[in-house]
Amino acid sequence: MAQQNQTCHYNESMSFFYNNSGASDTWDKTQLILVRVVGSIFCCFILVSNSMVVAAVITNKRFHYPFYYLLSNLAASDFLAGIAYVYLMFNTGELSRTLTVKEYFIRQGLLDVSLSASLSNLLVIALERYISVMNWKVHSNLTKRRVTLLIVLVWAISIFMGAVPSLGWNCICNINDCSRLAPVFSRSYLIFWSVSNLVVFLVMVVIYTRIYTYVKRKTAMLTPHTSGSINRKRTPIKLIKTVMVVLGAFVICWTPGLVVLLLDGLNCTSCNVMKTKRWLLLLAVLNSVMNPCIYSYKDEEMWTTFKNLMRCIGNGTRRQRSTKANARALSSGQDTGNSQPPSEETKTDEQGILKT
Q: Which domains does the chain have, with CATH numbers?
């Protein structure tokens, strides 16, 4: 029996693993359509809005600082999350059972890479904020080269974390260790994944709490010695508030899903983990929707840049339509010009013919 359990099942479809784990991924048809419609609207917003965040950082020279470069990288990870959600939504339900093992690893790998990238970015931003605050500066002294290396490191770690199950930490050769939420992922991997992410959440909350209390205390100390109130736009507290709201939204939206993954990894048979799966997915999608809204709401310069970008797109579209209309008018004018009225000689000849 042990030898049978150690048999590898690489050539099986996902239906085999769903049947083995006893997991049911069946969706009510109305429910599935609703999730796909709402999810598609959210995903379109995620792709467009996060593209605008990256474009805003590139085009506005006031954003050419380490914090905003890292923020645009966080937007890029949300953009990838939007792609991952689209792929997941249209390959879920009964379609999950028809996927090959490789296709399932791609589907889950995209989600894991985007989550790891978001989490890594928030951790790097926390360190960048800590450096700047300890020096009482709005922006840290990180060079562009170091920021680029950090961004490359974030994506390298994220891609590795997303590829870990396909590299061997799975239950394809040990089907008794398969989880229910991810039938080819081993329960030990789910425990590692959820616990490591929850620990990073806790570390970031501690860092930002320490930063915020330090800034508040420093501001209180400086206020009596200034001629007026400190301009908050020139102190680090404004950017810290933005990141704390982003972190808070991330923790709120992802913690329930990670807790459910942990329960599944611990093989909690009384916990109905499959029932909450689809709604936790929408909660995760909502997080990627919220981030661009937070950037624009908490940062007036970002919102102004968004409006300028939208005006440029609108003006460009109108200009393009105007160019096409002018081209059509010119073309019709040339056609009219080709059919010129008859010359005087032609008219004289025609009159002579009529007289004869």
A: 14-218+235-307 (1.20.1070.10)
